Design the sequence.
């Protein structure tokens, strides 16, 4: 089977990493011939593996070739479409996957990539309702284009529920997966430490975690909070930490290469995001035996966390409830232990093998459909 991935750019983001790892897995485990095409070119160290074909920055190359005329996006996007279409025909591609199609230049041409032998799938890392326009005409065409695709893959049940508003019938749910679970050597010694792992961005809403900690930190002087990640909000967050006098118990640790070690050392993880697709950070933490307290945002957490069994779901923005659930785990060592054991067991349903088998089954089902219709 020949598969073509199309994405806007290979960047150092969770969505990119997941898409690229899936491509590598399909090549390595199933023996598929996989090509990865991007609109723009950006080099990153973690794309060193070359078992798949990389064609980066195809649209940018076309724009550069036409000089000042390359600024006319409609013209160059159409030429990009023709380039990709020729590639699909020449290479006899079976499956085309647009990753986060809204951000791919070929979105409006996506259904034209189909043929009597090629299926087209859109893989969404954000819920589709957030990608539709309030403009009724544009929304109509978004819906029409997607209705002609062979499948739209969303990450969560809520993502599926959103599509009922658009009356789309070609929706499939396939979640993200956990790649590798680092096994601890011997007994894990958990420290009195609360972990957050996130980009320091407004959407991650880490100011709520600072606010919650300010309420309870004096009651638990031997506990600490550590945030791992970097971003534009670092100085704003640090200023707030300093204003509240939390420097001794609340630390911005920056980016670390091996976050898994932190998951093995900490007691539980807190996620205060405003929006997520399917948060890998929750899967990773739980796979290392960490309970998770998360805001119950629109998509993601409620598909992973079993509330009151391996973590807690908290109403978005409810600081009082967030404080209460944090204190519940801090003050109850036995519950913390039980939740951690449950987390490690329950998260196995998101193993790489289980999830990628669903992708394989989807490809085979859709290809069989078009072959039977020929």
Sequence:
């Amino acid at each position: 089977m020949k598969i073509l991935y199309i994405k806007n750019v290979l960047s150092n983001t969770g969505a990119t990493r997941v898409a690229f790892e899936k491509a590598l897995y399909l090549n390595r485990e199933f023996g598929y011939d996989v090509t990865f095409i991007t609109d723009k070119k950006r080099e990153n160290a973690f794309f060193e593996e070359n078992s798949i074909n990389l064609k980066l920055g195809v649209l940018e190359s076309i724009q550069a070739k036409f000089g000042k005329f390359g600024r006319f996006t409609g013209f160059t996007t159409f030429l990009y479409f023709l380039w990709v279409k020729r590639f699909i025909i020449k290479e006899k591609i079976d499956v085309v996957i647009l990753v986060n199609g809204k951000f791919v230049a070929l979105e409006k041409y996506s259904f034209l990539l189909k043929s009597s032998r090629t299926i087209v799938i859109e893989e969404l890392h954000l819920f589709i309702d957030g990608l539709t326009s309030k403009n009724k005409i544009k929304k109509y065409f978004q819906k029409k284009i997607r209705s002609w695709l062979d499948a739209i893959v969303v990450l969560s049940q809520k993502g599926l529920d959103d599509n009922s508003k658009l009356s789309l019938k070609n929706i499939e749910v396939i979640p993200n997966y956990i790649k590798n679970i680092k096994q601890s050597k011997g007994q894990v010694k958990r420290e009195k430490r609360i972990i957050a792992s996130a980009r320091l961005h407004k959407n991650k809403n880490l100011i709520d975690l600072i606010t919650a900690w300010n309420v309870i930190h004096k009651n638990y002087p031997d506990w600490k909070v550590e945030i791992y990640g970097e971003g534009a909000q670092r100085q704003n967050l640090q200023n707030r930490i300093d204003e509240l006098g939390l420097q001794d118990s609340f630390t911005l640790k920056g980016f670390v290469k091996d976050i898994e070690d932190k998951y093995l050392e900490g007691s539980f993880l807190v996620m205060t995001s405003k929006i997520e697709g399917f948060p890998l950070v929750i899967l990773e933490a739980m796979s290392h035996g960490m309970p998770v307290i998360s805001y119950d945002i629109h998509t993601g957490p409620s598909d992973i966390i079993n509330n009151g069994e391996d973590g807690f779901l908290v109403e978005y923005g409810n600081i009082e409830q967030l404080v209460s659930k944090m204190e519940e785990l801090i003050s109850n060592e036995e519950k913390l232990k039980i939740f951690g054991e449950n987390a490690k067991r329950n998260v196995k349903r998101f193993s790489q093998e289980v999830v990628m088998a669903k992708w394989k089954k989807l490809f085979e089902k859709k290809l069989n459909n078009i072959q039977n219709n020929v």
Q: What stands out?
A: The chain is about 40% helix and 15% strand.
